[in-house]
Design goal:
Quinone Oxidoreductase, Chain A, domain 1; Rossmann fold; 2 domains; 11 helices; RNA-binding
Length: 336
């Protein structure tokens, strides 16, 4: 099968940072389904894994943790899918990724592709939808179905992939959404997705949020990095919650959190698959929920750019765009 792989961890401007190669077609066993990959999306985690490091590889490594495709075959223990089903998923970071013609993935972390979307549109969603959904509803304990309507949430990094779907999920839950963005095009993007207010994360945020009429906010999701930690602690309400996806090395003073009895949560959407948790199937359920919401017209895909075909050249382009830090929404690469 065709695949795009790396054999060394190199800078993205190195022409050998990705190579086009041929690999054996895998065979589905146990709970695995074999998916014929039609489109993939690129996320910051891809660039972090690919980044230069002195770590040898035993052979070609296939990255990619966002895909949409068609089930080719199923393992003997599979009950949720059959050959011919259209699916979308983020996969498992401990296994070969989706930058290949065929991929094995555990059925319990796979959802049925939204019927109203193309494969390119669907591929933009799984990793970020799982991350935002788990951050809000599993970690912060927000009620998905509107019982917390009227509460406020600050999304730091609102124009990125996770923020783009997060704005929509938060609005569907009835929250007042304050999103951060810093450029005219990203400000327009988060407003288009439904943000009630926009503040600039490149300028002092506390004063901006106060100027909107919020002394504190009920929830904060940090979807870029932890440079804004102290501002987040100042803005969170007493007994509120902050969730972050950043594995930071920056100082995180906790005295303000203690004085407010506020909670801190970490979101890592690969945790369930990596640790084979008993509730792995929750990712199947939440992806199906997101698909139903999309097909009902309540939320939309966050794809912003599509490159064709899936090859080393376009993967290098996509990684370079992500590393530049100016992308809005999701970058998708479609078709072999």
């Amino acid at each position: 099968m065709k695949a795009v792989a790396l054999t060394r961890y190199l800078p993205i401007d190195d022409p050998e940072s990705f190579i086009d190669t041929e690999l054996p077609k895998p065979v589905a066993e146990d709970h695995d389904i074999l998916v014929a990959v039609k489109a993939i999306a690129v996320n910051p985690v891809d660039t972090k894994v690919r980044a230069p490091k002195d770590q040898p590889l035993d052979g070609p490594r296939v990255l990619g943790w966002d895909a949409s495709g068609v089930v080719e075959a199923v393992g003997p223990s599979v009950t949720l899918f059959k050959a011919g089903d259209e699916v979308y998923y983020a996969g498992d970071i401990t296994r070969p990724g989706s930058n290949a013609e065929f991929q094995l993935v555990d059925e319990r972390i796979v959802g049925k592709k939204p019927q109203s979307l193309s494969h390119a549109e669907a591929a933009a969603l799984p990793l970020t939808a799982i991350t935002a959904y788990e951050a809000f509803f599993d970690r912060l304990g927000i009620d998905r179905d509107g019982a917390d309507k009227g509460q406020s949430i600050l999304l730091v990094g609102g124009a990125g992939g996770v923020g783009s779907i997060g704005i929509q999920l938060a609005k569907r839950a009835g929250l007042a959404v304050i999103a951060t963005a810093s450029r005219p095009e990203t400000i327009a993007w988060v407003k288009e997705l439904g943000a009630d207010h926009v503040v600039n994360h490149r300028e002092p945020m506390v004063e901006q949020v106060h100027a909107l009429g919020f002394q504190h906010v009920d929830h904060i999701a940090i979807f870029n990095d932890m440079r804004h930690w102290e501002e987040a602690v100042e803005l969170i309400r007493p007994q509120g919650g902050i969730v972050s996806i950043d594995d930071t090395d920056l100082p995180m003073p906790m005295a303000g959190m203690k004085m407010k009895a506020a909670s801190l949560h970490w979101e890592f959407m690969f945790a369930r698959a990596m640790h084979q948790t008993p509730d792995m199937i929750e990712q199947h359920h939440l992806l199906n929920h997101v698909a139903a919401e999309i097909d009902a017209g309540h939320i939309r895909t966050t794809v912003a750019e599509v490159l064709k075909p899936i090859n080393a050249e376009n993967l290098r382009k996509a990684h370079a765009l992500i590393e530049a830090g100016t992308a809005k929404g999701k970058i998708v690469v479609e078709g072999f």
